[in-house]
């Protein structure tokens, strides 16, 4: 797992009358935990009210039996969050609740809005107030104040007004709505559950719940689920730019995206890497766990045996107990433990999914050397990351990206590897096996699928709502219609 490359969020929704929707959402979020580990939340609805529980931490830390029993109804949405805009406090946990044209609604968001500051300023000028620093609240308030008399008109307005990446789930007391931005930058799928429907960022959530995959929500599509069934429409022209990093690192290996199971794609990345950058070595190891499949692919293609030379303490980093300075300086050592018996006097190929700031890569190489490795040949299953992501992946600034300011050979020296090889963009696309036009490759090429601000300022307003239980009466308040921008 790339410790300096973090996904923003996972979203989930369920419509299942007669079922314990809070519990279903809890387990759905559990399957999406890898997409965000800072906070979690569930909103449920019966025909009269919305109920909300949010909190800091892992899904298992936020919810107990009592919380789930507090979330009644026949529909629910859920969210796991890693913050990219807004601070990581409890007040920014999602779903967020806002007052909309037909009453209150809850919204969960995965992605990042590149024109959030402008949209927010416009709304504030119209008298709309904000409680948090997240772009998710900007989305919710835009929807709440969108012109139009029907849900289709309001969602169409939303998709035209917002620029960026967003896979959304929204809940009112009588409908569950899911939408995917015109780039389809983040994944979102529809599944069938006995007597109901489910929506999830990744299909692995369906497997755990016994739900069957129906189809992906299409780019620019909005799907609405009510007692009457499922209806959908395309709210915006598609401009496909799916984040290719979902295949490289973010998505779980047992998820399927665009018909491709992630695990064999990662094996193909490793195999392609072995063709592009062969190494004279004795063993192949992967940085666990995201590079394991790729390391196996490298091994199969090269004929060099795969061994599990690094053991990963998978629970480190999933605690609120902050390490003290001495522990923090141990860095990678806290997370990985090498097996000297497998590494001593060996020439090692070390496969990882990416190098972002190189703050962990160098220490891992050094760890292998200390464990006795004679040579370390670093192989990376993505091209060099030269440009930041504005669509919801925390990579830091351009300056922080080591490949943005150093050549491959300079990086090799910096991490103290004997050789260093990155996968080419062409090799990446060939391994995924889908056309280039489908993807965002901006962090490798610097060419963004939509215009992005040169300097994206972070919204720094302090939130006012507490990350706790909120209960909203369904008010049926009339819409506040704002003029089109
Ligand atoms: S810039 Fe990179 S990480 Fe961001 S959406 Fe595009 S491919 Fe994904």
Question: Approximately how much helix is present in the residues?
Answer: 25-40%
Mean pLDDT: 88
Question: Biggest β-sheet: count, sense, barrel?
Answer: 8 strands, antiparallel
- The helix-and-strand class reads alpha+beta
Fraction of residues in β-strands: 25-35%
The helix count comes to 18
The whole-angstrom Rg is 23 Å
Distinct ligand kinds: iron/sulfur cluster
Distance between the termini: 42 Å
Strand order within the widest sheet?
Answer: 11-9-10-1-4-2-3-24
Overall form = globular
Number of strands: 24
Low-confidence stretches: 457-485
Could you explain how this protein is built, in words?
With 485 residues, this protein is α+β, with helices and mostly antiparallel strands. 28% of the residues lie in helices and 26% in strands. The chain contains 18 helices and 24 strands. Strands 11-9-10-1-4-2-3-24 form an eight-stranded antiparallel β-sheet. Helix 4 (116-125) crosses helix 5, helix 5 crosses helix 6 (151-161) and helix 9 crosses helix 10. The longest helix has 15 residues, at 262-276. The two termini are 42 Å apart. Iron/sulfur cluster binds at residues 185, 243-245, 389, 391, 393, 440-443. Iron/sulfur cluster is lined by residues 185, 243-245, 389, 391, 393, 440-443.
